[in-house]
Design brief:
The structure is a homodimer of 255-residue chains. Chain A has 255 residues and is an alpha+beta fold. Chain A is built from nine helices and eleven strands. The first copy, chain A, binds a DNA duplex (30 and 30 nucleotides) through helix 8.
DNA sequence: CGCTTTCTTGAGAGAGATCAAGGGTAGTGG
DNA sequence: CCACTACCCTTGATCTCTCTCAAGAAAGCG
């Protein structure tokens, strides 16, 4: 029964998804335990991993692929909080507070996940202080993501500002090379007018979805993208987006 | 030096701020340790406890009084996330992720707090599993508050909806009698058209601040308050607000 | 009783939502 | 290879909600 999944589970020890941002950055002894737990699963594109409001019975570790994390209202409106990727732990905050999932998670592309039942995970936490540390950090990051969304929606005065913020956030999240836990710095002093490094990243979202992230309408996303392109702030090639001068984008629109 | 504060610190064992929502709901042995740690402090009204962006060196436990938790943008715009009260732990999420405070906390009335240095707190956590549990719950609640703010701002289509949501949230937060971790249920099924219990609560915020919570302007808050009063949804007496029929408020405006 | 802070109400303007229509592109199947 | 469908993007026109500006009333406070 467990055996059937060992092929994937065995990867835990050799897996390269590590680093300070990854939940799976653990000592070998904890990884050995981790690979024994839970069930690995493959999912196709646009599959729902967990749904808001349902009992939080499992935590999911992302082995590969990207997913979107969202909340929705009864009338179908959607808010996308962030894009999750390899090394992320999904549903942790809800699992810990012992309640229901507070978000919905859906794959954006084929994904490999590892599902761990609540009680197993709690035991795993009690056994290893490193797991506790990574759990704290993971929950703190979920918190930061929610906070950034709230910031963007409340503090941006215009649609352009909301979109610019969302793009900068997406770019920074996609880039593991920046400082680990310092996403779109609400830069108080960093307003150097020097042209900054272009930021290149893949954006696996439709205009509709980008709108749901920035809290603006689909049409407005289109119009602003053209505007940003005209102003040489943005380049696009299929899914790939380049922010030509992130600093200028920031100073021009992120007020 | 420590002695000078023992008067207050000694209260920990007798303190009545307990219950499932309180961080200080701990066994006697942990409380004994708690009372030895940190420094108690009295603060007047409108005092800043901790400020967004500053190094997260301490956690603050609220012994008495209410405080507002907010984030702000460089141009002075403000978003109020929630009102904290006795039993809340402030700055926990930031302290754990080892970074800077992600919010600003300011007293709304005279408050008594207990400030605990980061390292002491981390040791305290490692020593007691109950402390770890309460920390998890506390961080999860900070997370839920951020999420609720994001929801309110993104998913509400009108200013009335935003305000109604904010009021319902404030009412539920102020009421410890409801289920512990189930604030403004985004009620999918609960749309019973029966008149609900009136909700009474104290609202220590100006219209300006309520606007900062709902993401609408001061004047719009005033106009909507009059409207809600006209429609017999709301009653006011100084700081005290009564939501006459919370369900009707919810079904009419929280779409 | 002046002074500050907060609340109230009105009038006007503008940003963005919404509605509408058309074009591009990818996948499917004959 | 080409029609056909489905989905997404693009652009224009209109309209409405809420912000902003303005001016005054109420209320709290030294």
């Amino acid at each position: 029964m467990q055996m059937a999944n060992n092929l994937l589970a065995a990867d835990c020890l050799k897996c390269s998804v590590r680093g300070p941002r990854s939940f799976c950055g653990l000592p070998a002894i904890a990884l050995q335990e981790l690979q024994r737990m839970g069930v690995s699963q493959h999912l196709g594109s646009r599959a729902v991993v967990l749904r808001e409001g349902f009992s939080a019975g499992k935590v999911f570790l992302v082995c590969s692929g990207r997913l979107k994390i969202s909340v929705s209202s009864s009338d179908g409106r959607l808010l996308i909080l962030r894009i999750a990727g390899p090394g992320d732990a999904l549903g942790l905050a809800s699992l810990l507070s012992g309640s229901r999932y507070s978000t919905t998670v859906e794959t954006l592309e084929p994904c490999t996940l590892k599902a761990i039942p609540r009680d197993d995970f709690l035991r795993f936490m009690e056994a290893f202080s490193d797991v506790r540390r990574n759990t704290s950090i993971s929950v703190a990051r979920e918190y930061e993501a929610a906070l950034l969304s709230a910031r963007r929606l409340a503090l941006s005065t215009s649609a352009a500002a909301k979109l610019a913020n969302a793009l900068l956030e997406l770019a920074h999240m996609a880039h593991p090379n920046g400082t680990a836990l310092a996403p779109p710095t609400p830069s108080p002093l960093a307003s150097t007018s020097l042209p900054s490094q272009p930021l290149d990243f893949s954006l696996p979202l439709t205009h509709e979805e980008i709108g749901c992230m920035a809290g603006i309408s689909r049409e407005t996303v289109t119009r602003l993208f053209s505007k940003f392109r005209r102003e040489r702030l943005l380049r696009q090639k299929g899914e790939n987006v380049t922010l030509i001068d992130p600093n200028r984008l920031d100073t021009l629109y992120c007020v």
